[in-house]
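Supplementary Text 2. Reproducibility record for the structural model of the 137-residue chain.

All settings were left at their defaults, and a single model was retained for analysis rather than an ensemble. We include the record here because the model underlies the residue-level annotations in Supplementary Table 4.
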Amino acid sequence: MFRSGAREDAAMQVVTAHPGFSSQRIAALANYLSGLEANPHSVKGSGEHLRVGQEIYAHICAACHGIDGRGEQGNRVPRIAGQHYPYLRRQIEAAADLHKDLAPPEMTSALRGMRPQEKDALADYISRLGDSEGLLP
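Retained model, structure tokens:
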């Protein structure tokens, strides 16, 4: 999706544009990365509105990405738990803009309808998934 321009991320587009990265190598790299454990020291948000983020996650994200945010590789649902807050925030904006063929329409429409503060809270909550100290009881 990065190579075709359907998804945009400057770093990924540099990687996918490199002539040495065939589709097979990119798939192998993606499989390897998706199998790694979540980053134990990810950058997190302010922590101010975690309850809001938790509620949004439970209603919008958990059905596909799982309660723990680990996704489901077999169904091409990415692990999102423990990603860096700034990355998650950018990805939430990007997902809201994605065409319905690349993401479920329920997801894109829900993200599109969120206020910026809700997107902040959601990204902050997701950045803390997998971090038992960073989540609400």
